[in-house]
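Allow me, if you will, to draw on your knowledge of protein folds for a short while. I have a record of one protein: its chain in single-letter code and its fold written as discrete structure tokens. I remain grateful for any guidance, and I place the record below:
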Amino acid sequence: MRTELDKIVAALKEFYAREAFLFEHDLGERALAHRLALHVERQFPDFEADCDFDRLGPRTLNMPHGSIVSTDDHLGKSVYPDIVVHQRSVPNNLIAIEVRKASNHQPLEHDRQKLRALTDPHIWFAYWIGILLTLGKNNVTSTEIYASGKHDPEMSGVLAELLKEADIGLA
């Protein structure tokens, strides 16, 4: 997992170096996610990085019964991860990323629930790693890592340290 986190940090470093305009003009989370996905894809040459990708082959990604549901579709059940790193045709799901602006004061629970579900190994579309990123104007203000359907505090701390070392995390 450390290799993948190093690549995410490299992508975030490049993102902050090149995308200041997005923050200066207070653009939305979808714009941030799209631009970040471009930088992430460069770090994973054998994978694709897609935004709002709701498929695994011909199947639509849906939250498990009883989960907090998305409001992005008319049935309120489809899952739209902000960014996924995957191989579309295999399918091979590596990383699901949820992006939040630091100025977003909505509760985190929906994003957390989504990442728990997306990384749950008992669900057919499981991603190996889930990452919740809160993006401030000049740095990442908080991170959470999810694996095997649970929050992983140890790896969350590793990512926070890597971001600090790269000068894009909280000091």
Summary: Confidence is low (pLDDT under 50) at residues 69-74. DSSP finds five helices and eight strands in the chain. The CA atoms of residues 68 and 113 lie 7 Å apart.
